[in-house]
TrEMBL record:
Residues 2-85 form the LITAF domain. PROSITE patterns: LITAF (PS51837). Its main location: membrane. One of its GO terms (molecular function) is zinc ion binding. Keywords: Membrane, Metal-binding, Transmembrane, Transmembrane helix, Zinc. It is found in: Endosome membrane; Late endosome membrane; Lysosome membrane. It is a peripheral membrane protein. This is LITAF domain-containing protein. The keyword S-adenosyl-L-methionine does not apply.
Length: 85
């Protein structure tokens, strides 16, 4: 009996939309990027609060550089990968 093993690797993604072939639907697509706050985002906000920079506490939540960029397929909606800054 002949068996095949298929290994699907996550494509390399960056902070911006990336051209890839979706591992789920096999279409050539430009990824949709959604940024998401992480623990690092919350820690930066807490540090700003601790050091009495009250007006700046919301900045980590407004800046994409303090968040992860999650990439999704616009065709099937499957998760492609995450870019951590």
């Amino acid at each position: 009996m002949n068996t095949q093993t298929v290994i699907v690797t996550s494509p390399a993604v960056g902070p911006n939309s990336t051209s890839v072939i979706c591992p789920s639907c096999r279409h050539s697509i430009m990824t949709n990027v959604r940024t998401e706050s992480t623990t690092r985002t919350h820690v930066i906000a807490i540090l700003l609060c601790v050091f009495l920079c009250w007006p700046c506490v919301c900045l980590p939540y407004c800046m994409d550089t303090c968040k992860n960029a999650n990439h999704y397929c616009p065709n099937c909606g499957s998760f492609i990968g995450t870019y951590q800054k």
